[in-house]
Amino acid sequence: MEIFRSKRVFVSLLLSAITALLAILSWEIIVGFAVYLGSYLNVEKVSLNAWSFLAMILLALAVGFLTEKFSVKRILKFAVPIAVIWAILSFAAAKYFSVNLFFMRVISVMFLPIFVVHLKKLWLIDSELTEKLVDLASAGHILEGKSADLRIESGLKLLETVFPLSETIVFRLDEYEGLTPIGRARNGNSIDSLVERQNAWRESVALCERALESRQTVIESDENKAKSAQIALPLIYEGVCVGVLFVKFHRDFERADQNVLESFCGQLARNFQRKELRSKDLPNKFWWSFLSTNSAENRIGTTSLIKSLMKEQSFSALASSYLKEAHAIAYLDGTLAYLNRQMRHLAKLNPQEIYELDLFGLLENFKTEVFSEPHLAIRRVLQTGENYQNELYFQKKNRTLDLQISLVKAPSDDVSIHETNVTTKPACFLITLRDISAVKENEKLRSDMASLMSHELRTPITSIKGFAELILMDETISEENREFLMIIANESQRLSKMLSTFLSVSNLEQSDKKEVSKTAVKLDTVVHEVVDEMQESAKRKRIRLVEQTNDNLPPIAADKGLIRRAVSNLVDNAIKYSPERTSVMISTVLEADFLRVVVEDRGYGIDRNDHEKIWQKFYRVVRDGQDKEDESTGLGLSLVKEVIEQHGGVCEVESEVGQGSRFSFTLPRL
Ligand code: ADP
Fold first, then answer.
1. Between helices 72-92 and 50-69, what is the axis angle to 10°?
2. Closest Cα to atom 19, ligand 1: which residue?
3. Does residue 378 register a pLDDT over 60?
4. How far apart, in whole angstroms, are the C-alpha atoms of residue 409 and residue 404?
5. Which residue, among 527, 661, 524, has the nearest Cα to 582 in the 3D structure?
6. What mean pLDDT do residues 627-655 have?
7. Ligand 1 neighbours (beta carbon < 6 A)
């Protein structure tokens, strides 16, 4: 920048010196000429000496430098009074001391550099402005995605696909006010003779000329011939007629089609104007463009090109009004850029309020218990660049909104927005709100139904189990019947266990995080208790339970009963899905922000494809040679996941078939 500036100063000094030299030289010639003529013109007939010459050059350099640094207005404020004083001094010196102060030369050497340097500054600003305009127009060009020609072509294709057209012609209105066809499409094989074709052409041109003259759509329809019609539509952009579209319907022309065609013509006219402007020379192609009227006109054209690009870009914002979701766009400084109709409606904003509102003001309208500090959400989005998502429940209206805040990133330079793999920078926020009340209501209804059913099933199952066991006490029943009764008792026991786990999972799913009653819990104690409890069943399978706990673990805030159930389910699974004479290791680890419980076994392992699925309700892994009917319900891990997530932790699994599994979960530290 500094170098650039010093280069500018250098050019100004050079220009000032050259201007001064030329001015002095001109005066010398004028003086010489006057002396030669021997006239008594009142010019300074004395030639300059070396010192005066040097002084004048220095004066020009000083003036040039100051003009480069300050505005011409400021310079003239001083230069004019100095010129007046110099005039008085020159007059006095000539009259009383017969000394020539070279008034005219000094004035020229002072004012001409001001003029030249100022002109140079204007020229630089003008070129920069033009460059920026061209840049802006060509940046838009990249955004357009397709060239104007291609757009005209695809537009004609669309027309032909939508309407039963036998002919489409696009005329351009050229400089001499004549219609020149620039695009033509015909459908079907025409067997008309040459004369007929010429007549038809003349007819279509005449129709187009009428449309041009009246600046309105002209329709010639023939109701009898299967509603065929010929239509000429003027292409008008910003009040200027740029061409005409001629279409021929061979059947089924309806009045409503006219509106569609007219809207299409609006777009076609824009494309036309764009093509026209792009075909012109760029305004700053040559250095003298500054002085060219043609170039100035092209610059006006460029601004109207930019206007048309901006208009097309505004369509995308308008289009979002038609989406079901409520949207708002906010710049990184928190100013709201756009709110769609649905958002205005949801936030109950009137036009005045929208004007005064900023991002936080808008989010204030959607505060709930889980979204009580919008600024924290915004901060997280800014820090991580990841979307923030939450479900907001409004009790008063019994409405649930799905909120998403995203950080929109834009390409850092002027590359196409359609391109991927480019470096991006945060540009703005997108806030989306979706009304999911109906979905939530539905989910709740389903879950309520399921809970109710399981509740209702409990009593009959208990009876079945109770009576089966009662009959089993009878010594007289046959061996075969005893076996059947055993099956009834075991299966009802399994069913009852399944129901109670299912109810626990459903209850947890429905409860809010805050509803879990948390107390300070020592995780190592919980693990110890579970291991103690499980020793019996492990021994039955000759499995060694190894406990590796850390006594220095800080307590966590949790529902002890639930955590115990989660650990117990993991240990139970490890025993269940391991062969005899293996070991299961249960350990607790202290991590930066979490405590982790790990249950590791040397059992059957789980296929990679099942790692995600095992956490779903009722999902069971099928293994060769393993009885599926045993204790398994497919609910154990879904309960673990639900419990851990309610406590703000995450569950993980690492496992390989035949090698064993490593289940773990984290819980946040207090
Ligand atoms: P289940 O009541 O069937 O144990 P879970 O939800 O606890 O239901 O487990 C789902 C499935 O994941 C089980 O069918 C089992 O095959 C598999 N699984 C769970 N834990 C282990 C483990 N430690 N080793 C191997 N497989 C396991």
1. 160
2. 573
3. yes
4. 16
5. 661
6. 85
7. 569, 573-574, 577, 601, 603-606, 614, 619-621, 632-638, 661
